[in-house]
Predict the structure.
Amino acid sequence: MLTPMNGVDRQKLFDTIDAITADKTIARFKFRLRNKWVDGGENRSRVDDYDGANQTFRREAPFELVNDEPPVLLGTDRGPNPVEYVLHALAGCLTTSLVYHAAAKGIEVKGVTTRFEGDLDLRGFLGIDSNVRRGYQGIRVVFDIDADMDEAGKRELIKTAQKYSPVYDIVTNGVPVACVLDARQAQAA
Amino acid sequence: MLTPMNGVDRQKLFDTIDAITADKTIARFKFRLRNKWVDGGENRSRVDDYDGANQTFRREAPFELVNDEPPVLLGTDRGPNPVEYVLHALAGCLTTSLVYHAAAKGIEVKGVTTRFEGDLDLRGFLGIDSNVRRGYQGIRVVFDIDADMDEAGKRELIKTAQKYSPVYDIVTNGVPVACVLDARQAQAA
């Protein structure tokens, strides 16, 4: 029986790896949400159920997330804006990947703090210059890691996080996104 | 003086476009946040200031966002997980892009609801099969739009959202992400 490390139940982690190695269908997850426009730059998402390990899981209570834009971007600042949420997703995933993979290797981590910054040129979104991309031109991440190891060891932890993080893969490599109009609505129109 | 539409101050929107056309430095934004690991799959981001229009803006109160993982992914479910936040960011940005660009064209939108789903194979994150990608293999989006227009018009609104949304660009095309160890920490090690 392995002891937990970095708050990660390592026994359950290795049991999961064994189970997936025996039956890869256990590894298939589907995450989902519904979003509803409120007004202007404000909209809200409801995050509840997801599929994984051949079953559907539902939260005890759904999470509600608020997107808005600050006044300079014509919003009412009731929540972070979507490009800030991208940084949050990336921060969370890199940190969790670092901590989980360290735990799997038996490396104790005492603290991780990160700073994220992304450059965005509004001419893209506004359609002022079609040569300017709409999204971030680049994102910079600075890690501060508290662990009993030298600089090279910490850099290795960062590399491992980059190697295994799902959101780092999504943000750096891109994912196909298919957008359609609701079929019932399309029929009704 | 233009009237607002879809909750968007169109006069301010066109004034912004004019200002940026005259001075492109106004269009340069930097969004940022700090994240701190709590334990296991839980970590928290603090979203506060950002740069844009040649100045730094600070929120009246910072936003705090919570990442966690559900129990099946060895977490304590105190918040959505990072890949769910990716869907939230994408949902918010596509919706805001749709609504703002409709407003700019004088198209009234009464409602937008969307459903998002992404497929993720955990073998990537766990390093069980290096041929399986870590991030989403694909994301599906279904739009339900309430507006006085036919199906073709609604499909056009969706295409416009895809064309101008920063997060859609980030998620479909990818962005360079540079990760470094804090320089002071590197010196101290």
